[in-house]
Task: structure prediction
Amino acid sequence: MLKQLNISFMLATKTIAGIIFLNLLIFQKINAQSTITLYTDSILTTVSENYNYGVFYVPKTAYAQNQFINNENQLNAIRLNIIESVLNNASNLNEALNLLDSVSGLLQTISSKTGNLIFIFEKMPYWLSSSSDNSPAQTPGWYVFNTKPPANYTDWNTMVYSIVDRIVNVYGISNASFEIWNEPDLGSWTGTKTEYFTLFKQTFLSIKNVNQAIPIGGPATNYWGNNINYSASYGHLDFNAANSSLIANLIDSAYNWGITLDFISWHNFNLAYQVHENAQEFILNKYASLNLNPPKLIISEWNAPSAIRDFDIHKSFAVKNINAINNLQISNNVIAAWQDFDYNPTNEFQNDYGLLTYQSIKKPFYYCVKFLKEIKGNHIKSSANTPIDNIASYNNDTLRLIVNNYSPPPFIEALNHTLLKGKYNLNQLDSAGYINISLNGYSYLDSIYKGEISITNNSGLNSAINNSIPIYQYYNSIKNSTQIITISVAGNNQNFTSIFYEIDSTKNNSRFMYDSLLNLGYTSSDAVNYINTNFNLKSDTGVFQNGVFSKILNPNAVMMLKIHIPGLTGEQKTLNTTNTIRIYPNPTQDYLFIVSDSVLISEYRVLNIIGEEILKQKANSKQIKIDCSNLPKGIYTVQFPGLFYNRKFIVE
Result:
């Protein structure tokens, strides 16, 4: 599985090297201070299931498999490559089915751990391929014959039907969904685009022949804006540019075929949590342009770029990324992967994909996404005087708060802001002379972010660059120094205690322990055995004095607090917690669609940015369409009286 090194990270390799080195130090300098305020009397929405992360489960060892089977539950989604495995370890359909039968009990167990078990049809087996070329393909572990269409669709369709029927009807796995192919934009498909769509349609129809209710989707591209043999420019893609993507082509093809996709999926391996909003915006607008309701959106693989995996920023980025996904209408997110793919006898931490190392050390990355599973019940309102991440929830008389001192390279974060919030791409920056992609030249733009060069706001691009300068300044102020984090509970001046867990470059950090043991003369194998036997997260006690608690955090430290406040239950306002309301597209230019997953919306109100009511309407429906074409551009709030629920949206 070859992953594309993200363009944004390639821009600042030297900067990252310095950050990584500095993150290994004990920071003494304190520049920044952040204050987080919790409002216990203001409950917001129900906590999303996306905090229960998903996993691409490809165990390489029995120990890692046992860790998963015995310890992991209630995952957002689990993605499996078992179909590829049985097809490519067999020489005919009967052998493939026998191999599948041999793991049927394991599949049933895994199915019980999630609401969405994703199976992939990928990697054409030799005995079905139209090609006999066994030379290596671009995708590691694949051969050219794996990347071609089948020799005939009678055999292919029989295989698809037989395997799906086995999984759904024989094994009784009712939560199975099926993804067609994997990263066709990254060399795993070398047939023509026409042949790709033929494969997709034939596979789709064969699965639906088993049961029309089975969810099917794709195209699982490595980057949402890519197409086969085409990579999109890094940054924001407008509708026209994104309409050249394989996702757009697939939506159009399904529309022309008269079939309904159950989900759209893609992957992301960039240090840019902001990119998901652009993907969602396009897909929702694309479906709106066809007067269709959108399907589920799934990020079926994601991780950090290889250059930062297993370093201190990795865990912090993971928390940032999952939180960003939770603010969107994305149904599932799947971390790639459960376990590192490659074994290195002398270096257990080698920038691989896993939540666990090859020999099953649980990485800081693993524990930090585990923190997110502790966010339960309902979100409560919180605010901060800086961009520091904070996620607060209330459940069973306990407040839970995650504080993430995310400290990316300032240039990268400012660049992502310019591109993805300002809605530009690298090619546009290059054309305007701010960067030189061919010469890897970014010093001019870097000088603007630093404030060494000034530009006027005489264009949209210039404004986007200038609007990113405060982003650069904030992250530059915290990159080499600790922060004082002050947490206060609004309206509460009591004294009470909390339990907190902190993971930084040394505390509760399995990689730091591994490196320390090597420095003490341990072999890699002995260090692994010691950590797997002795390492556990250690907690501390924090005392809130008069409702206030302060803590010093290093860059990229992640902290989770559990706070029990006597009498908190009586302070809460009522909220309907059984309903999720989605709105799309957001931003919008014409229509805003509102969908309630369970209860009827009896009425809704639209307020402008200063709180004036501009629309009030009875509804008595789960689906609402609001005409926004005559509204001035700006920020609006839609309220749902009786549900104690509101959402902001933007009219462009």
Remarks:
- DSSP finds 20 helices and 24 strands in the chain.
- The CA atoms of residues 361 and 532 lie 6 Å apart.
